[in-house]
Amino acid sequence: MAETPVYTDADPTLAELLHTHPQLTVDPTCGLMLEGVALNAIADSVGTPCWVLGAGTLRARMQRMHTAMSNAGLDVSIHYAVKANDHLAILTLIGQEGFGADIVSGGELARALKAGIPADHIVFSGVGKTDAELEQAISHGIGQINVESAEELEAISAIASKLGKQATITLRVNPDVDAKTHAKITTGLAANKFGIPFQDAAALYAHAFTLPGVRPVGFATHIGSQILTTAPYRAAYARVAELVHTVRAAGNAVSVVDCGGGLGICYRNETEGQPEALAGAIKAELGGLGVKLAIEPGRWPIGPAGVLLSSVILRKAQGMDVPFLVLDTAMNELLRPSMYDAWHGILPLAPQAFSQPVSLTHVVGPVCESGDTFARDRLLPPLARNARIALLDTGAYGAVMSSTYNSRPLAAEVLVEDGQWQVIRQRQSVEELWQDETVPSHLAKAT
């Protein structure tokens, strides 16, 4: 597993970040733009912090995934990983493009159905599905449940039998393959909580055929997130292929292999994971099995589609070797840097800032936690009070992980499409923070 990254090379410059993010451009008058829309105009109207998502970028990247699989001659169903960004507008777009959903909770199932994604286009993953969630999924007749344990298999059988239904299932296999990604987002090692141990999978699959209420169709695997090379995929898929041959030799049919997701993006200066390369890995290891294939991309299509707009509260420089740029955005909006030591590009919104000299700057939020830090020793132009910046690649695991810590209302969300923009979630009011709270009557009387 990769540990916290220690970078020995120089961070990308502002120009280099623009080059690796073609959805962003700089207009000499309007400043930084996403898909041709001035981000300053959005901030003027909506305020900051504010999430902005580009529908065109998301559509193009999902279609590139589809084209890569199709050009490789693969029969692949694509299920968007809802956990990356679960906004109804995003899920509606996904469904209208003809893609399915990969969910990990009953709430995500309800969102996907609300957005119009057909139940039979939904796959249910996740290590801890409750009885209520399983009953919900089976009652709706979702396309597939990825079973994470022998115990869960028994529970599904009992619930489906009680409902008089038959649940289509795959076994999620843990192939014990190191994806060489951050320890907190790797899922395919034997030490991780996910999936069925590889050595137990064949016997459990055979057992599944003896149970009422379940229809075993194959296997699933998912080895982690932010994967940039195909070697871990090929190693995992080779093990799954071995398993398919083993269970077929024992007389049990396999018609589905779910290949998971996890393809990585370019946050800093990484070589972005390529859907075409992923298709090649799937074809090389699984293409000859004669099975229906599936993938679950989340970060790759939606991550680069989003930016988080922020304003500078103040520049704390007096007595500092490196000044602190204090933003109105905090870890309660974007948790990834605090949780994963994640690197996010930072670009100014003002056009003149791109031609100014840069100097080392620490970029932090206002929350009372030392972990509320977005960047250290980042080379940035002078940014005074009320200057605006965009934190890049925040479309995935950004707004969906937000909280109201420090009683900070949830930020607004905006969708950009065809040169226009629309608010898709209003900024939460302070009063809404406590609208569901109740003060017991004996305490209310005391005040």
TrEMBL record:
InterPro entries: Ala_racemase/Decarboxylase_C, DAP_deCOOHase_LysA, De-COase2_CS, De-COase2_N, De-COase2_pyr-phos_BS, Orn/DAP/Arg_de-COase, PLP-binding_barrel. Pathway: Amino-acid biosynthesis; L-lysine biosynthesis via DAP pathway; L-lysine from DL-2,6-diaminopimelate: step 1/1. Its EC number is 4.1.1.20. The active site is at 368 (proton donor). Pyridoxal 5'-phosphate binds at residues 262, 296-299, 397. GO terms for molecular function: diaminopimelate decarboxylase activity; pyridoxal phosphate binding. It is an enzyme of class 4 (lyase). The keyword Amino-acid biosynthesis applies. Residues 57-300 form the Orn/DAP/Arg decarboxylase 2 N-terminal domain. One of its GO terms (biological process) is lysine biosynthetic process via diaminopimelate. Substrate binds at residues 299, 336, 340, 369, 397. It comes from the Bacteria. Keywords: Amino-acid biosynthesis, Decarboxylase, Lyase, Lysine biosynthesis, Pyridoxal phosphate. It catalyses: meso-2,6-diaminopimelate + H(+) = L-lysine + CO2. CDD domains: PLPDE_III_DapDC. The modification N6-(pyridoxal phosphate)lysine is found at residue 83. Pfam families: Orn_Arg_deC_N. HAMAP family: LysA. Specifically catalyzes the decarboxylation of meso-diaminopimelate (meso-DAP) to L-lysine. Belongs to the Orn/Lys/Arg decarboxylase class-II family. LysA subfamily. Homodimer. This is Diaminopimelate decarboxylase. It comes from Acetobacter ascendens.
